[in-house]
Amino acid sequence: MRHVLSVLVDNKPGVLSRVAGLFTRRGFNIDSLAVSPTEDVDRSRMTIACDDTKFPIEQVTKQLDKLINVIKIRDLDPQNMVARELTLLKVRAEGSARGEVIQLVEIFGARIIDVTPDTVTIQATGESDMLANFEELIRPYGLIELVKTGVVALGRGADPT
To answer: Is the pLDDT of residue 27 over 90?
Structure first.
């Protein structure tokens, strides 16, 4: 099962390295990692997606909690969170294929953000599964490059994540 951890940390140099080092030392894999400032300039939020079939999530959260710059850890409930990713895709779009690519972009609610005579660059945001479906459908047209941000997520409701 995929878990999304929201980790509130001090916004200080080296914190990301210590968190990533914890995963490395324990042999845990990070599926995606996004780090950004929060509404408080002294804090950053790390959103870490990982698979608990390879290691127990409780072990990870206990180890993270021991790190000095970690303020709060929350294993977000998939039913009670809002999660999104951003993907940029550069795709071949020559001749009649260009119209088909544009149709897929419209169907998935994505945007074309750059156009050249033989390529289009697409920005797609949404849930991981939707982006995977979009990538699978666009790949046959000639996927040249792809980059993803990783999951960012917040818990639902008025309580802070």
So the answer is: no
In this prediction the pTM is 0.85
Q: What is the CATH number of the domain that holds 52?
A: 3.30.70.260
Residue at which a domain ends, from 26, 50, 76: 76
Q: Which amino acid is at 17?
A: S
Q: 7 with 60: CB under 8 angstroms?
A: no
How far is the C-alpha of 158 from the C-alpha of 59, rounded, in Å? Answer: 28
Say if residue 124's pLDDT is above 70: yes
Residue 36 shares a structural domain with residue 70 = yes
CA proximity to 60, closest of 128, 1, 3:
3
Once rounded to an integer, what is the mean pLDDT over residues 119-125?
A: 97
Listed in order, strand segments (DSSP E) in the chain are 2-10, 32-37, 43-51, 70-76, 81-92, 111-115, 119-126, 143-148, 152-155
> Does 42 lie in the same domain as 95?
no
**Residue 93, SS3?**
coil
